[in-house]
Amino acid sequence: MLRPNSNNQTLIHFVISFILKYIMLTQVKRAMVFQDCLLSRLITAYILKLQPNGYRSGCYNMLCPGFIQTSRTISLGAAISPISTYNAEQYDVAFMIWKDPKSENWWLKVGNEVIGYWPASLFTDLRNHATLIEYGGEVYSGSSGKHTSTQMGSGHFPDEGLGKAAYARNLEVIDRANNLNPASNLQLYTDKPNCYSVTKGYGGVWHNYIYFGGPGYNPKCL
Question: What is the pTM of this model?
């Protein structure tokens, strides 16, 4: 289990307009946890951060009011299993967030289970629609003098590919008519390429996909 200190945290995320985040648990063999959200003995958990007004506010999972839980099977922050093993069996799970055009609430679905929704009244920036979608990973490093050794994804760079690097696949967006469309014009970005990296591709049943991750601190990432 990954046990970050108070200055380091990691997640695999999907961002809608910099407001909704959740972990994409695709090929992750360590727990993705935040300080104050460490769940003992959980191998893997998905953690969602809600920020109704961009990065100006927010909290994780059910730690603040707002999200309306409708599922009696899965809850935010719950453990997911089985998990992937490096160079062995791989597992992933589908996530979807969409806006109901009638109620204007934002709904969350994990696999085949609708988990619940965020009421439209919570939002300002997302009141009408999203303007940006991001897929990938994020690591926070404190000011300790060197880069954190916190890993992203499997802890391996994306060029190792399937079975070794973390991935997100079948990347799609939902339009105003509630139709699913392949994500287009994907642009790659990493601010610490010697620490973590990302590649993209298209093909087969995966359609749009990315591989991403890395070990963090290493001789080239100081």
Answer: 0.78
